[in-house]
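Input chain follows. Return structure tokens only.
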Amino acid sequence: MSDYPIRVGMLSRFLSAGEQRKTVAAIQDGSIDIIIGTHRLISSDIQFKDLGLVVIDEEQRFGVRHKELLKERFKLVDVLTLSATPIPRTLYLSLVGRRYVIDRNIATQSAAGGNRGLRLR
């Protein structure tokens, strides 16, 4: 990664206390561009300098309570949730307006210039 102007960090309870302190300080001063971590990232001592995007992998036991905490703490931050939720449930949630689903064909057409933007359904 040294060829790219991006600094990536990792934070979890499996790091030593000293490593965690260094990483938390880097998060707070904005010197880390991308941080990958566990539930440790939503601890009360973590203050992001300029958080722009949160990506959640639901496979990693990130529950409803944790997602609600994120929504409350970071109201103006975009969230991308990766899910292995069964298709019928995802379809139901999109139909009742609880989850947006991007039509892959529309995304492909848009990337090729055949459509103006993505439509969320």
